[in-house]
């Protein structure tokens, strides 16, 4: 009688290892990348310098499509037409995210972030001196006096200036008014004595 062995034998592992993903030819990497959707394509692009160089950047149209994904809704991100980036809502003026330039608006392709709006570029609509830009309910201006982008104030004439220029001007005007009052009081006092 033969004695049976109760141990189970497994087939031997293949002697050749499976090819690793990075060892595949670039043509296959490009084909695989073409099947990926946002944000998976971006995640692959960010894994290493090789994929960052191999995978082309998203076009403006691709970015507009990407902002309609669940990921974009969850992170409240929008496409900028000039820097070709997906940016959080806080990087855009409030009016860029509403109505025609909103997520589903007919002019969504004309939306740009505040950072790009502050950079002058000929032939395109950008922000200039005196512009009032509301970002998440806070008014910012490109000051008519110092030309800085800062939290803004409107004077009684509706001119947009930054808070520091406003305070400086108010101090100067207060000093002028106080000087005029002092001068008038001095004139009255000298005229009543004479």
Q: Summary?
A:
The protein has 194 residues and is α+β, with helices and mostly antiparallel strands.
Write up what this structure looks like:
InterPro entries: F-box-like_dom_sf. It comes from Aspergillus tamarii. This is F-box domain-containing protein. With 194 residues, the protein is α+β, with helices and mostly antiparallel strands. Among the domains are: 75-123, no CATH class; 127-187, no CATH class. It is built from seven helices and six strands; from the N terminus they run αααααββαββββα. The strands form two sheets. It has a four-stranded antiparallel beta sheet. Strands 1-2 form a two-stranded antiparallel sheet.
- Radius of gyration, taken over Cα atoms and rounded to an integer in Å: 32 Å
Strand content range: 5-15%
State the strand order across the main sheet.
3-4-5-6
Q: In this structure, how is the largest beta sheet organized?
A: 4 strands, antiparallel
Low-confidence stretches: none
Organism: Aspergillus tamarii
Protein name: F-box domain-containing protein
Features:
elongated, 6 strands, 194 residues, alpha+beta, F-box domain-containing protein, two-stranded antiparallel ribbon, 12% strand, F-box-like_dom_sf, single chain, four-stranded antiparallel sheet
Secondary structure topology:
Blueprint: H1 26-35, H2 40-45, H3 49-54, H4 60-66, H5 70-75, E1 77-79, E2 86-88, H6 114-118, E3 132-135, E4 138-142, E5 149-154, E6 160-162, H7 163-193
Antiparallel strand pairs: 1-2, 3-4, 4-5, 5-6
């Amino acid at each position: 009688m033969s004695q049976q062995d109760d141990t189970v034998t497994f087939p031997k592992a293949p002697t050749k290892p499976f090819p690793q993903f990075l060892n595949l030819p670039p043509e296959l990497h490009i084909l695989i990348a073409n099947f990926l959707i946002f944000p998976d394509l971006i995640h692959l692009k960010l894994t290493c310098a090789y994929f960052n160089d191999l995978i082309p950047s998203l076009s403006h149209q691709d970015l507009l499509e990407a902002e309609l994904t669940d990921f974009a809704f969850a992170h409240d991100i929008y496409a900028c037409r000039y820097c070709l980036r997906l940016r959080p809502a806080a990087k855009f003026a409030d009016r860029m995210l509403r109505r025609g330039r909103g997520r589903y608006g007919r002019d969504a392709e004309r939306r740009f972030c505040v950072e790009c709006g502050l950079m002058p570029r000929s032939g395109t609509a950008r922000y200039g001196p005196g512009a009032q830009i509301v970002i998440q309910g806070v008014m910012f201006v490109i000051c008519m006096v110092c030309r800085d982008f800062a939290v803004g104030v409107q004077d009684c004439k509706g001119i947009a200036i930054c808070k520091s220029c406003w305070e400086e001007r108010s101090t100067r005007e207060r000093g002028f008014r106080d000087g005029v009052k002092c001068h008038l009081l001095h004139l009255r006092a000298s005229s009543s004595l004479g």
